[in-house]
Structure formats: structure tokens, C-alpha cells
What we know:
The chain is α/β, with parallel strands linked by helices. The protein has 4 domains: 5-105, Rossmann fold, CATH 3.40.50; 122-196, no CATH class; 201-366, Rossmann fold; 368-424, 2-Layer Sandwich (Alpha-Beta Plaits), CATH 3.30.70. The chain has helices spanning 28-44, 67-80, 93-103, 110-121, 125-139, 148-154, 165-199, 216-224, 267-272, 274-281, 297-310, 333-339, 354-367, 381-390, 411-424; strands at residues 5-6, 15-22, 48-55, 84-87, 107-109, 204-210, 241-246, 252-257, 285-291, 318-323, 344-345, 369-377, 391-398, 402-410. The strands form 3 sheets. The protein has a 6-stranded mixed β-sheet with strand order 7-8-6-9-10-11, sandwiched between helices. Strands 1-3-2-4-5 form a 5-stranded mixed β-sheet. The protein has a 3-stranded antiparallel β-sheet with strand order 12-14-13. Helix 4 (110-121) packs antiparallel against helix 5. It is elongated, with a radius of gyration of 26 Å. The termini are far apart. Mean pLDDT is 85; it is low at 1-12, 156-162 and 423-433.
Amino acid sequence: MTDIFFEKSSLEIDRALLVGAVTNDQSPETVNEQMEELRLLVRTLNYDGEILTVPLKRIDPATFIGSGKVIEIKTMLEELKIEEIVFNDDLSPTQMRNLERALKMEIRDRSGIILEIFASHARTREAKTQVELATLEYLLPRLTRRWTHLERQIGGINVRGGAGETQIETDKRLIKIRISRLKKELQRIENDRAIQRKSRRGNYNVSLVGYTNAGKSTIMNLFTGSEVLVEDKLFATLDTTVRQCQLDKFHRILLSDTVGFIRKLPHHLVASFRSTLKEIEEADLIVKVADISHPQCLIHLQTVDEVLADLKVSHKPSIVVFNKIDQMDREIFPDAKRIYPEAIFLSALNRLKTDDLRRAVIAELEKMEIQLTIQIPLSEVRDIAYVRDHAFILSEEYSDEFVTLELIINRKIWEQIRSKFGKATDRPILQKE
Ligand SMILES: Nc1nc2c(ncn2[C@@H]2O[C@H](COP(=O)(O)OP(=O)(O)OP(=O)(O)O)[C@@H](O)[C@H]2O)c(=O)[nH]1
Ligand SMILES: [Mg+2]
């Protein structure tokens, strides 16, 4: 008797077989959750996924699942008339080639699917360039065959894999040239962004991060009145949006909404999205959004932390927000509360408890600030303007020589100003904390 478990869905069109391995180091529950997520991913590409979990004692280097299972799947494919196969795990180029030969079908893996979704959702020049770069880097070692789906998505470059050694070598060379062009292009985009960022100094940068579909864009729209696309779809947002938001009299922030994370995010993708993710690197505060209606919510938060660690931003101040309390998973709530005692629970869609987040952000910003009184000679017009731009002025008093300013200012900015003033002149600046 077969030990393959098969779950059938009702739709008969555009079906893909989703293959997930249950190995000794992964529980069947975890794999099942990942398979459900993979089903959502392929649904984004308009496929209906049939889930197949395969218990594996060891990974076969040649075919991943082993030749016995390959034969079982082949029979199954014929019976069910399925024409797409997607593996939950990333396959080596050799495993893919062998599986395709045996099953006579294009095999895709999770990374390939995520890249396809990104390619189909990319709208701006930046997102398109980033996705093309990640896709070509993914394709390069796998160039011995055709890649109908990905080639169609990225277009532009004529990849003719499988057409003989010489042709493959030529294709590889062309792709390498294209990769280096794309990298240069991204560097230019990154420089432009750095200039934009410089011009908006003086505001706090707050970044919304989180698992895909957690509700980041919904929170963004709620707080800033912007109209970022919100959809019940994975990776609805690929481009970073930055908008101003006045939290209270003293605090204006620049809130950024960016691409969501997912388990097993392809390495190349994170690397190519560097300029988009730069917003997080520049953030003063990170707001981690999690969907508490999702049973895997806490694992999603771990994934988010792993990506943030990869981006080397784990040290930044952060707030955890559990969104969608209107559909809260009651089993998770006690653990969420215990592990994240400071977390905010809200519903962005239903506007429940959203003011708690506003207050929490203000409280975090206040930890970064000092209140002080300084005197600047009236002759230093530019310095006065600079301080005005970078601080919230509580009061000001003029004498013949000085202006005395009572202000609230970010400590880091104060340190910068203080050293700048110190270098420019040796006049005393009175500081009372
Ligand atoms: N029930 C419920 N649904 C919500 C809530 N907030 C957002 N949603 C829904 O969740 C889905 C995803 O919301 P988005 O704001 O697009 O999520 P995102 O984190 O920006 O997702 P990506 O950009 O795809 O990574 C949408 O269908 C929203 O309407 C909430 O408080 N309650
Ligand atoms: Mg979004």
C-alpha cells in the first residue's frame, strides 16, 4: 500500500500537484501548514493546488523523493490529468532535471513560484529590476532546460536552454552581462533613494514589516490616508510607499509600507530587494505586524525576526502588533500575550483599538528624545533654521544677542547638531536636561 497521502479538491481546471516532503526534522503539521501556504501561493498564479505529502526517510540527491515515489507520482499524474508540479522544497538543478526527464513535465519549486508571483505583481521600474535580477540569478545554475513560466514573466532576454552546450554557454554569458547591468541600474536607483531620504530628514522613519497578508497596507492606509493596494492575496505590495503622518502635536513620522515576508523566501530575492528594504534599515522604529487570525501567527513572527536578522536590523526598537482581532484565533491569544506582553492587539480593517498603536509609537519615540534649552546667537541664522527644522520648539525668547529655545529633540540629532556647532564656533551652548 502506498504511504503517499493525497487530498483532492473540487476544481477540475488548471490544477497543479503540490508535493511536500515530510522528513524527520519536520512535523507533519508544519509541512501541512506549509502546503496550505503553497496552495495560496499557486492560487495567486491562478492554479488550483492538489496537495500531496510524501514521507521521506532521506532526501535522494538524484530525484529528491526517490525513484519509487517518482513512479507513484507518474501514475497519479496520468490518472488525474495534472499538468503542473510544484515542490514545496527547493530542488537542486540536478534533481529538477532528473524529475523532469522522468515525469516529462516542467517542475517548479517554491522559490520559482515566489519569483513568478513577484514578477507578475511588479509595477515600478525598481520592483521590475529587482525581480528580474533575482530571477536571472535563480535561472543561471539551472540553464540546461526551458523555463517557460519564468521566461514569460521576465521577457526581454532570450533564454534558449536545452539547445546544446554551445547555446547554453552563450545564454549564460548573455545572462551574466544582463545581471551586471541590472546591478548597476539598482545601484543608481538606490542612490536616488538615498538623496530622497536625505531631503526628508527631521522626521522619524517608522517601518511596517510583517508576514505577507498580515495587514500592513491596511494599517498604512488607516494611519496616513493613502491608498496602497490592499488585497487578500500574497505579496499584494512589492513597492515601498512612504507617507507622512502626524501622530500628535510633537510627532510627525514617515511611515513606510513594504514587501511582506514568507517562509523560505528565496535568498536571491532578499538580496535583490535591498533598495526596497533599505527603508527598514533606515527606520528609527520597526512595527511588526502579525495576523492573529492565522493559526501559524507566532511562527510567522519568527520568520519575520529571521529576515530582520538577515537585514541586520534586529537591534532597532520595535513594536509588535497583532492585527485582525475581529477574527482572533483564541487558542493563540494566551501564547501571544505571554511571549509578547507589550504587544498591541487591534483590527485595522474594523478600526478597533487602533489608537493603542498610535500611543505605543509615540511612547517609543519619546524614549529617543530629550527636552532641553539652548541659546544660539542671532547672527547664526542658518543654525537657528536647522534647529527649527529638526526639533519641536516648545518656547522661544529673544534677547539682543541670543535666541533661547526650549525644545524637544531626538538624541541622535542633538548629538549631530552639538558636534557641528562645536566645530563651527567655540560659543557656549547652554544645555539643561
Ligand atoms: N478580518 C480582518 N481582515 C483584515 C484586517 N486588516 C486587514 N485585513 C485583510 O487582510 C488582507 C490583507 O491585507 P493587506 O493590508 O493587503 O496585507 P499586507 O500585509 O499589506 O499584505 P502584502 O502586501 O500582500 O504582504 C486584506 O484582505 C485585508 O482586508 C482586520 O483587522 N481584520
Ligand atoms: Mg501590502
